[in-house]
Amino acid sequence: MNFSATPPQARLFIGLMSGTSLDGVDAVVVTQQGEHLAQQGQYFLPYPADIRQLLLDLHTPAQHELHTAAIVSNRLADLYAEAVQGLLTDARLSASAVSAIGCHGQTIRHCPDLPNGQAYTLQLGNHARLAERTGITVVGDFRSRDIAAGGQGAPLVPAFHQAVFSAPDTHRVMINIGGIANLSDLPINGQVIGFDSGPGNLLMDAWTLQHTGNTYDAGGQWAAGGSVNQALLHAMLAAPYFALPTPKSTGRDLFNQAWLNLHLQANTDTPQNVARTLLELSAVSIAQALQQHCRGAQELYVCGGGAHNLALIDRLQTLCGLPVQRTDALGIGVDWVEAVAFAWLAQRCVDHLPGNMPAVTGAAGPRVLGAIYPH
């Protein structure tokens, strides 16, 4: 791991991640000392059903959405504070021992490609309120500075992946399958790249909830019992996003229920077959991205909620021709990688070190990411 130019004393940082899947808050505490990083504890706090629905609603313009967004930001800050308290209690740590919290916030808009310099990104979460609730310095709003510098603002984890997962003699690719899937290509020599490949879990989860009442398809078992609708799959894979060059990033602004419904108008099928086709969409789009942008990969590692979808991982292994290993083998469990990344980004910010990779996001240069809210 490479934490160059950091002070030698051991410090504690907390990372909070609430991603596109809208399932809840992942919280971790890590010890950072020089070049060493060690996870000391973890805690998960699920979202209440009403918060999840409000966040889904906020992805679509509506009356009084600014008021709703402000109220939801406050409630998210309270949930984040609850997660921090649970984490500290489990780890038997005091708030005063923590240098800073890195809080990604909850993305409800991500529009990095608007013309005439009007790109923006929006993550909800009242960081001032979180600092008040916890008594800990909070670092938030990590994406905006990269976008201001002409970048995509995402993905931000490839810099972290390079710092903690790269190997001097092995070409690795990290596959993070959250609501959206993103890849980090870590070659032995050459430029690190990273980008969003397309849908990860979000379309599968939405379809599963609509037709089974479950928030996700455990192990991919329901989808595995269906058949791929090839016409539907080909129509979805024809979306222009998949052919875009890097750098690129995406989210619910593009891949959402309305997008799926539009394709289903011309390609109807049974709910289980659609579920199987959505699983295939995620697997094929990831595999095609690997083949196009990550040639020569020797090892594949997966993290995120999609790592638990055994049917999806089996398809990835078949399509890629390589074993897909879990990041647990590299020292960080699949459910905690992104939260650890935001603890790392918080450390980078308070030490005035850049947290982005211009080759990944397209920014004009390295930038210190995040805004600091002192306790």
Please describe what this structure looks like.
- The protein is an alpha/beta fold and 375 residues long.
- The protein is built from 13 helices and 13 strands.
- The chain has 2 domains: 11-154 and 335-373, ATPase, nucleotide binding domain (Nucleotidyltransferase, domain 5), CATH 3.30.420; 157-330, Nucleotidyltransferase, domain 5 (2-Layer Sandwich).
- Helices cover 38% and strands 21% of the residues.
- Helix 6 (202-212) runs antiparallel to helix 10 and helix 10 (271-293) crosses helix 11.
- The longest helix has 27 residues, at 65-91.
Chart the SSEs and their pairings.
Layout (H helix, E strand, L loop, with lengths): L10 E7 L6 E10 L2 E11 L2 H9 L7 H27 L6 E6 L2 E6 L8 E5 L2 H8 L3 E3 L3 H5 L8 H9 L6 E6 L2 E7 L6 E7 L2 H11 L8 H4 L5 H8 L19 H8 L6 H23 L5 E5 L6 H11 L3 E3 L10 H14 L7 H4 L9 E3 L2
Parallel strand pairs: 1-4, 4-7, 8-11, 11-12
Antiparallel strand pairs: 1-2, 2-3, 5-6, 7-13, 8-9, 9-10
Helix pairs in contact: 2-3, 6-10, 8-10, 10-11
